[in-house]
Amino acid sequence: MTMATADWREQIFETLQGHDIRQVYYVPDAGHSKLIEACQNSNSMRAIVLTTEEEAMAGTLGAWLGGEKSVTLMQSSGVGNCINMLGLSKTLRYPMLMLITMRGDFGEMNPWQNAMGQATPKVLEATGCIVFAVDRPEDVQPTVNAAANMAFEGNQAVAVLLRQKLIGAKSFGKN
Amino acid sequence: MTATLHRRDVVKALMQDPTDDLLVIAGLGQCTWDITAAGDRPQNLPLWGGMGGTVMIGLGLALAQPRKRVLVITGDGDMLMGLGSLATVAAQRSANLAIVVLDNEKFGETGNQATHTAPVAAGPSDRGAGTDLTAVARGCGIADCATVTAEAEVAQLVRDARAKAGPIFRTVKVMVETLPAAMPPKDGAHLKDRFRQAVLGAA
């Protein structure tokens, strides 16, 4: 892993702290693992591990009803588990910030990931989410910051797709 | 065993003399009508959708408002769709969260088809799996779980749901009844805004 990739992961954590995110919903994910660890070790954040990603949309609503901001960290395959719940944000108009590590996207070596990976931005847009995609390390922090502003200032669902050009495709022992 | 408890009576007891610190999330369908029949108030979130998510809304709220009591009232159909959330609740150990499932063993909104909580031997068109939600919740790691079947147990149920250190989980076996719908406001943004204003003040 290069220094540049370590940097953008730290920048996401700092950006979430800067927005006073208190609840971090996640299903364990290799692409988000360093960020999840940072959130687990944070004094101001509670890291909430889920059994399935759709729990996050409901948890996010509860957090917002109680005055706390949250974020959801998941893989693109998890977006497929969320479709009905994604619509809650449009119905109740509450902020939903999602940081999604892509699979089935660029150089994926597990074909079982491709169908949902390719459907991910379409599904998010179809349920009313604003979607940003990031390919370059230098774009991560400004995009996450912009997404958080739009979510929390606009009572809006916003997803940031961290693409495989950025995070790399899982190699399964091949290069 | 045939259920004898009336759901509306149980919910009325659960929500009797509510203080502003009692925050109630109700699962879609009959539970939404039940809490509204007990008295619509801004600290209620009656759901019209989002099936399977009721417990998680309660958890996110309980974590955000640890000094207030969060009471989730939902049905067996909604609970069965979100069983995993019971493990998620167990992992967080929220002391201010109570989950009450009104279990009539039916999908009430779609024509009273049997859910998995119905008995196995209920007949070919009405057969369930005998799923015991209290056992599921306990198996997920929620230590304080019980099933309520009798009128004499309701007063204790109410004390536990309103005040006992949680998370607590109660299955309440209730009758299958056709009841008039008591409809709360339907606009989700309005329900959310009035709730936040009541809990957080004008913002």
Automatic annotation (TrEMBL), chain B:
The keyword Lyase is assigned to this record: yes
Keywords linked to the UniProt accession: Decarboxylase, Lyase
Single GO term (MF): thiamine pyrophosphate binding
UniProt-listed Pfam families: TPP_enzyme_C
Residue ranges occupied by any Thiamine pyrophosphate enzyme TPP-binding domain in the UniProt entry: 46-169
GO biological process terms on file: small molecule metabolic process
Record protein name field: Aldehyde dehydrogenase
